[in-house]
Amino acid sequence: MISATQIRKGMVLIHDGTPHRVLDFNHRSPGKGPAFVRVLLRNLSTGASYERRLNSGESVKRAVLEQQEVEFLYKDGPLYYFMNTETFEQFPLGEETLRELKPYLKEGAGVEIEFFEGQPIGIEIPSSVELEVIETEPELKGATASNSPKPATLETGVVIQVPAFVRQGDMVRVDPTKGRYMERVK
Predict the structure, then answer these.
(1) What are the distances in angstroms from CA 53 to CA 33, 162, 186?
(2) Domain pair 2-62 / 129-185, same fold
(3) Residue 97 · residue 47 · CB < 8 Å
(4) pLDDT tens digit string along 116-129?
(5) Which of 34, 40, 79, 144 has its CA 20 to 30 A from that of 112?
(6) Which region, left, alpha or beta, applies to residue 179 given φ > 0 means left and ψ of -120 to 50 means alpha?
């Protein structure tokens, strides 16, 4: 059990007997009344999201998760298949489980899959991924000192903003949790 004030984004909590991921939280100390924590939760079984208000002294149960290193194999319809590289066991996960991370998955990428009571419930993607720019506007002459970003389509289909000097065919490092360009890599 942890105090409501110890809740952080990304944690998995047990609420009504099912695991919920914390999408966002906000600790409030109003001038009148007791402090509270407003938490945005996603039910990992149904995919439904909702907000809950907890008193700051309230306790919540944190889920005990098992994590395994896996490799993303392929997508087949709404399912994404992962394989444990040691046991070669495969695990399918639905699109609704991956949500905002699916645009940053490419075949062969290493991720960690999370299990709750033996069932896969989600993944943890590395803090940065390297993807190829497949389409972007050409570089403008003399715009290298400019700080105006331009859209770029990456190999997985996701579109992000990149600096003007990034060209088609470049490899870029992206933060998948924020969907932001970090740097160009060779």
Answers:
(1) 14, 38, 47
(2) no
(3) yes
(4) 888 888 888 888 99
(5) 40
(6) left
**Separation CA 103–CA 75 (nearest Å):** 12
184 band by pLDDT with thresholds 50, 70 and 90: very high
The listed CATH number (3.40.50.1450, 2.30.30.30, 3.10.310.70, 3.30.565.10) that belongs to domain 2-62: 2.30.30.30
CATH 3.30.450.20 fits 66-124, yes or no: no
Q: What is the pLDDT of residues 75-104, one digit of tens each?
A: 999 899 999 989 999 989 888 778 778 888
For 87, 92, 124, 130, 173, the CA distances from 155, given in Å and listed in that order, are 29, 22, 20, 10, 12
Q: What are phi and psi of 114, to 5 degrees?
A: -105, 135
Classify 129-185 by CATH class: mainly beta
Q: What is the pLDDT of residue 145?
A: 54
Q: Hey, what are 173's tokens?
A: 């490092």
pLDDT at 135 over 90: yes
Q: Is 101 helix (H, G, I), strand (E, B) or coil?
A: helix
**Residue pointed to by tokens 């047990």:** 14
Phi–psi pair at 107, nearest 5 degrees: -55, 135
Listed by start position, the domains of the chain span: 2-62, 66-124, 129-185
